[in-house]
Amino acid sequence: MNGEAPVTVVGLGEMGRALADAFLAEGRPVTVWNRTAAKAEGVVTRGAVRAGSVAEAVTASPLVVVCLLDYSAVRETLEPVAPQLHGRTVVNLTNGTPVQAGEMAEWAAGHGADYLDGGIMAVPTTVATPEAFILYSGEQRVFDPLRGTLDVLGAAKYLGAEVGLASLYDLALLSGLNLMFDGFHHSVAMATSQKEGTAVGFTELLVPWLTNMAQLLPAFAAEVDADLDRDAEPQLTQGLDVQLVGLANIMNASREAGVSTAPLEPSLAGLKALLAEGRGVWSAPASVRQLRSGPPVG
Ligand code: NDP
User: Fold this and answer.
1) Nearest CA to ligand 1 atom 31
2) How far, in Å, from the CA of 180 to the mean position of ligand 1?
3) Per residue in 158-192, pLDDT tens?
4) Rounded to an integer, what distance in angstroms lies between the CA atom of residue 296 and that of residue 298?
5) CATH number for the domain including 249?
6) Are strands 30-33 and 49-50 parallel, antiparallel or unpaired?
7) Which atom from ligand 1 is nearest to the alpha carbon of 17?
8) 134, 152, 207, 273 - which has most CB atoms within 10 Å?
9) What is the CATH number of the domain that holds 129?
10) Mean pLDDT of 261-288
């Protein structure tokens, strides 16, 4: 039904250009706007219409996809055209926080526009490939008719009516990624502290190790859910003493290798906190609970 529905893309950075190209490749009429007009040249060559102003851009289509640097840029760009957004749908794929998403949704509703917030789990080169998925949240009545259109960019995953959910999950997924990269950097620094060690050779061992260990996560996750739902006793545990000795060995070996232990300090603090709670064992639910109740830092 949405096969030929026109789309406007506001923001033609690396990601916005990939989004516009994905819609163009589908044969859809696409209108684009970017603060720096020159960045539109490529997509215009491929069939997009360059709007002369933001107002012209948003009035060209019932669906306005926005992908800018941050929410300040989104507000700065859309506020002057608020009256023209009335009756249209804004899908904001800009990276931001759940609170920012909530404020944006309220602002849009105040101007008679429907609003979905999104989190792109892809890089520009994987947009519109089977690797890409995009998280959405906001009213289901807004999402449902757009699902087919949005699927063009990458599998559209609807998380629920609470508009902050997409950014929350997006940022939580990025948190997992960042901490994995920190682990990669630290382990490579350790492994390459000997002249025999190469990062490439070590990574040939690291990838299958992490891939195997990642298979445990769904079982840990089920225990976290059971704990939150009904305070169930976890079965997947390990003695805190074993964990503490193991971590001390990693940290000592790290020092001996002249490598900072900084990335490991939060793990040590977490285990010590579990010990201070009087626990004898480590479990995923206890660690998650402890993080959720701990004081926010920074
Ligand atoms: P770029 O830096 O390539 O592009 C930033 C865009 O924001 C440009 O269109 C820029 O316009 C615009 N912009 C910045 N400030 C303003 C402003 N004050 N007013 C109007 N426009 C402004 O970033 P990306 O395209 O890579 O990223 C865009 C969004 O997509 C970000 O929120 C990012 O987190 C998210 N994202 C990006 C991914 C990636 O791999 N690149 C992956 C997943 C999400 P101008 O050209 O005029 O400077």
Assistant:
1) 69
2) 25
3) 999 999 999 999 999 999 999 999 999 999 999 99
4) 7
5) 1.10.1040.10
6) parallel
7) 25
8) 134
9) 3.40.50.720
10) 92
- Ligand 1: residue whose CA is nearest its atom 12: 68
Q: Say whether both 27 and 93 belong to one domain.
A: yes
Q: How far is the CA of 121 from the centre of ligand 1 (A)?
A: 15
Residues in contact with ligand 1 (CB, 6 Å cut-off): 11-16, 34-36, 39, 67-69, 73, 76-77, 94-95, 120, 123-124
94 CA to middle of ligand 1, Å? Answer: 8
CA distances from 107 to 61, 75, 77 (A): 20, 9, 13
Q: Measure 168 CA to ligand 1 centroid, in angstroms.
A: 19
Give the pTM: 0.92
pLDDT for 298 equals 54
Poorest-pLDDT segment among 3-17, 19-33, 229-243: 229-243
User: Range of 279's domain?
Assistant: 216-292
Domain count, the chain: 2
Q: Mean pLDDT over residues 101-119, rounded?
A: 98
Q: Are 15 and 156 found together in one domain?
A: yes
Q: How far apart are the first and last CA of the chain?
A: 48
Same domain, 148 and 226: no
Q: Are 133 and 199 in contact (CB under 8 A)?
A: no
How does DSSP classify residue 79?
A: G
